[in-house]
Amino acid sequence: MKKNYILLITALFCLNNFLFSQAPDEKYYTVTPAQTENEAKKIIEDRFLKQFEMQGTVSNLKIIGVPEAIGYYVHGETLGLKSTVGIVLSTGRAKSTEGPNDHSGKSESNGVGGDVDAEILAQNKTYDASGFEFDFHYNSGEKNFVMSYVFGSEEYHEYSPKNDDDKVNPYSDVMGVFATGKNYKGEFSNHSQNFALVPITNQSVNLNNVHCGYESEHRILPPGKKAGGENKGQNCNFLVHNDHVSRKYIQMDAYIVPFLASIPLYSDEKMVHIKVVIADSRDGAYNSAIFLEGPKLSEGIDDIDQEDEIKIYPNPTSGEVTITAEEDMEHPVIYVYDLRGSLVVCENLSDAKENTINLSFLPSGIYQAVISDSGVKLYSKKIQVK
Predict the structure, then answer these.
(1) Which of 43, 50, 122, 212 has the fewest CB atoms within 10 Å of its CB?
(2) Comparing C-alpha atoms, which of 28, 134, 153 is closest to residue 89?
(3) How far apart are CA 299 and CA 140, in angstroms?
(4) Total Cβ atoms within 10 A of residue 325
(5) Distances (CA, A) of 306 to 75, 270, 278, 324
(6) Sheet holding 310-313, edge to edge
(7) How far apart are CA 51 and CA 76, in angstroms?
(8) Is the predicted pLDDT of residue 290 greater than 90, yes or no?
């Protein structure tokens, strides 16, 4: 009996040492998908719309596509998003967006049709549409409905345009964030307007408009490296090549840095219809997805003040500003937004510890400077241009 007691104590001691000698839990991007339409609505209500309870009301929430294409993720910070929890919309299964990126072209069909506005974007028939739409009745205007999102796709880089004469690939999957109301004058259904645009352009977000060149075969590229071929890319500075093999990262071969969709709200209306959708173009092959943070009503962008690591000076400035970093960065980009959330400057920085940019062409006012490195937002602070 004494021998058995000693063996038990020894076993418990070893187990305790084993448990407490393990490294702390890593932060993995993981997805919990919906199984029913009610579950999909619940995910969108709880993970995306709930924070608006004090600023207005949401009604007529509808799901586009199948429930399994919608889910909520944790650890969105691994994609450069600010919040750890958000929702994912996929042209395949939401669960299939989880990493590692171990598949050359993950492809699933959800067996549903497309979307009328996605087809205007694609100029093609669409399939496997996934998304949601709702009415938002707000209490006060002159603000913006702002959401951060990341678009990623398994179509990179095999389906990027092949050369400079081939600027459009008809299979490029599309996404949109549409607003409908009397103050929106767009070319989509009911005169709705698309606010998911490549910064400082009027281009919609898809593989044709954000890519780093064509590869005839799947190849995972290191961050910042362009693909081969004659076409060296378009808006390549916005793309992150997914060479990560741990489960921290997503399945998609490449994804954009976080973009903002900023919908102006007008005081003379007090209601806007919003639709967020993604769809396969021309066929139902190769998964693409949108990763969405919960939106907010805002007159600007929140600060992320890391003065110990990154500095921008002088502030206020009448022209040039200097950006210094404690450590070298791999693929740094600076974005400057006005207080309505519109991007007015986007510039690649060198990987050195000091860079200078010229803001003298901007009208006097307050702006938000955001610095990211390989898609991860590092710094955000208001600056004044005199």
Answers:
(1) 50
(2) 153
(3) 12
(4) 21
(5) 21, 37, 35, 12
(6) 310-313, 320-325, 354-358
(7) 18
(8) yes
Q: What is the dihedral of CA 119, 265, 344, 385, to 10 degrees?
A: 180
CA 169 → CA 90, 209, 210, distances in Å? 20, 10, 12
Whether pLDDT at 304 is above 80 = no
Provide mean pLDDT across the span 262-274.
89
Beta bridge partners of 250: 98
Closest CA to 26 of 270, 186, 234, 249: 249
Q: Which residues of 178-197 are buried (b: 16+ CB within 10 A; e: fewer)?
A: bbbbeebebebeeebbbbbb
**C-alpha Rg value of the chain to the nearest Å:** 23
Q: Which candidate, 143, 179, 209, places its Cα nearest to that of 276? A: 179
Structure tokens at 309: 């690591």
Instruction: Read off the DSSP letter of residue 40.
Output: H
CA distance 342 to 370: 13
Per-residue pLDDT for 269 more than 80?
A: yes
Burial-class residue 210 by CB neighbours within 10 Å (0-12, 13-18, 19+). Answer: buried
Cα–Cα distance, 17 to 26 (Å, whole number): 19
Round to whole Å and give the CA distance between 197 and 186.
Answer: 13
